[in-house]
Every structure is written in structure tokens, then in C-alpha cells.
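Field notebook, page 422. I keep forgetting to write these up properly, so this time I am using the form the group agreed on. The chain and the ligand, adenosine-5'-triphosphate, are recorded exactly as supplied. Prediction of the bound pose follows.
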Amino acid sequence: MSARVLVIDDEEALRVSVAKIVSRLGHSVDTAGNATEGLARLAKQPYELVLTDFRLPDLDGLEVIERARQLRPEAEIVLFTGFGSIPLARRLRQQLDDRPDTPLGRIIGQSESIRAVLRVVEQVAPSTATVLIEGPSGTGKELVADALHALSPRRDRPLVKVNCSAIPETLLEAELFGHEKGAFTGALARKDGRFARADGGTLFLDEIGTLGLPIQAKLLRTLQDGTFEPLGSTRTLQSDCRIIAATNTDLGQAVKEGLFREDLYYRLNVIRIAMPPLKERPDDIPLLLGHFLAHHAARNSRSIDGFDAGALNALRAYDWPGNVRELSHAVERAVVLATGRTITRECLPEAIRQAAGPEPVPLPDSQIIAVPVGTPLDDVEKLVIAETLRHTGGNKAQAASLLGISARTIYRKQAPGDAEIE
Ligand SMILES: Nc1ncnc2c1ncn2[C@@H]1O[C@H](COP(=O)(O)OP(=O)(O)OP(=O)(O)O)[C@@H](O)[C@H]1O
Ligand SMILES: [Mg+2]
């Protein structure tokens, strides 16, 4: 049986020879020189087999697998690596096995607030209702948009993303609606806009709070009746796309301040999903740490077992203004800096290290005392007090503070007889 095969590799020689072998075996084969091109091909054609290099210039192998699985869950994906290490391949295998490969499974979290988000995503994904995702930076808004598309009946059609803040206002209209040749200086050829490209699929309007008022008016019209005119054209076109919008600003407030059209706000705000900041769901921190540790350790070919107590304390105490994105970066940095198999507090960025207060100064081994099992507690107390006093050079106030008791108690415990005389 002949299969459709896609080969993704940035090294031309390798790509060509793999393609030759595959085609000699009687299969039809296409090639791509990077992940973006490969995934674009995969979105268009149902390949049965994808052969991809692990190290590509634009995306790493794990991400390619993840996205390819999203696009074509039925395709077989084979990863090969010029770095040819079997331990790496084993780790990848393990990681992929552990990895939840459903769109919802990619959103890690067990807190009630994340579960509530997942329930809404599951419930509204099959519909064409417009969704507005609100939440601070790095909380997973784009991840939710991906899941909404992947769980919708439009999953085989494109998910087109527009970052409204990244495109200058003057170009945004042409980007969204397309333009004719010569519509403006530099418009050398006719070009489809994002609405046209998202036809039948989903259009993700990211950072929608940054749109200026004139373009808000045009957008409203298209959202209302699905029609638009490319720049420089008299034709009216139609696009059937599902709209998902995201913002990290408070749109309701922007409406009050006259910066955002109220009618557009209501048009977008049909289903609202609010992404909770990480500091409001500390239960998710250990899970996310585990997830990103596995991810970054595999990516960097490192064997790291976990975090020590000092690192965990700091990671739990920190308030994560950059949310999950910041956490992922902190773990990646720690994985790279770790010298042993555990991540210690020294591997964390300064701001996080400080979150749990100063690290206790470890006592040298010579100052550790061993107490035989069964020693009466009174004697244990006396021994610890005596040794602590030796450690502080006889300074009772310092010893008392180390032991968390008052100086008076030291006197009393050390020599009960004296205390009675006192
Ligand atoms: N719950 C989560 N589970 C796993 N990964 C997550 C989660 N939330 C966010 N991430 C990861 O954190 C990074 C940031 O997420 P995303 O881009 O979706 O955030 P965002 O809310 O769109 O941020 P911004 O407002 O800055 O664009 C991504 O790499 C994403 O995969
Ligand atoms: Mg985003």
C-alpha cells in the first residue's frame, strides 16, 4: 500500500536522500525545510507518516510532534536526530507517553479555577459562539484558544492568529481584510486577508484591547454579518469564521473610558473565559513545575530528578507576575544552570530566590550532635542548649534567638537550681 509521507529536515542533503528512499519504496513524498513549512503542508494534506528532524531552526521536535498530533491525530510521527543519543530518544519516549495529548490535557492544572475554565472550553468549543478570553500575561489565553479550535468541528480548517498589537494600525486593515494590487504604496500584488484565510475555520484576534477606534468600527461590521471589502476593492466578500478574542487589559474598563466601542465589546463578549493568575492557584505550581521540568530537561538533554526543598519553598512563595510563562522560563533556566541531578535555590532567578526570605545558613558537620534513641527529652534539651551556647561563644541572647526561646528560659533549663534561687 502506498502512503503519503512528509519529510521535515533543515539539512537539504538529508532531506533529499530520505525523500528518495521513501519514494523508492513506492510512497508519495513531500518535503519541508523547517517546522512552519512542514506544519503548513500537514494542515493542507492528510499525510499518513511524518518523518521529522528533532532539531529544527524554528521549533523543537516535541513541539512539532505536539502540533502535528493536533492537526492530524491519525498520522504516524517519527522523530530522528543527528544528535543520535539513545538516552535522549528514551527520555523523549517517556515524556511523550506521560504527555497528555488531548487539547484539554495540554492545559495543566488541578485547581478549581482551572477546572472551571476547562469545563467551559469543553462546553463551548463545539459551537460557533464568539469567545472572549481575558487574563493577565502568560496565563494561557492562547493555549485556551488553541483548545477551543482543536475541539471544534472546524479543527481540520485553519486557525488563523492575528496579534493586533504587533501590526501597525495602518497595516492592520489590509492584514485583516486583504488588499488589491496597488491599493496602497507597496501593495505589489493582490493579497488575501486573515478573514479570508480563516474561512471555515477560526480567527484568533489576540490583544484586541489595543485596536484603535476606526478599525473597531470596521471589525464590528464584519463580525455582525461576516462581510468585508479588501482594501482598494469594490467587491464585498464573505467569511465564515469563528471568532476568539483575547486581551490582558480590562475591556469593560476600556469601554467606560471611551477607548473601546461598547457594541463591539458586547459582540465579542458572548462567552467570557477569565484566566486566573497563577498566584491565585498555588495548587497548580507543583504540577506545572513537574511538567516544565520534564519538558525542558528533555529539550536540553539533561537528567534532572526534581527540586530540593529550598528551591521548592522559593518557587511556592513567589507571586509570579509573569504567570505560567515566567514559571516555564525559570524552570528552563534552572535546568540549564543545574550542576547535579536536583535543582537548588541557587539555580533560580534572584527575584524568586528572595521570595522565601534568606536561606538558613547550614551548620558545619562538626556542629551537628547525635543523640541516642531513648535519651530523656530533658537531657536532649540541655544538650542542645549547651551546644548552641558553645556555637554562639556563650552569647545567651543569640543562642536563645537561634533556639526560638527567651534568654530566661535558657537560664532556667540550663541550671534549674539557679533559677529557683533567682
Ligand atoms: N495551564 C497551563 N499548562 C501548561 N502550559 C501553560 C499553561 N498556561 C500557560 N502555559 C504555557 O505558558 C506560555 C504562555 O501561555 P500563553 O501564550 O497561552 O499565554 P497568554 O495568556 O496568551 O499570554 P500573553 O497575554 O502574554 O500573550 C505558553 O508556553 C503556554 O504553553
Ligand atoms: Mg497570548
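OBSERVATIONS:
- The two ends are 99 Å apart (CA to CA).
- Residues 107-109, 135, 137-143, 248, 324-325, 328 surround adenosine-5'-triphosphate (ligand 1) (CB under 6 Å).
FOLLOW-UP: compare against the apo run.
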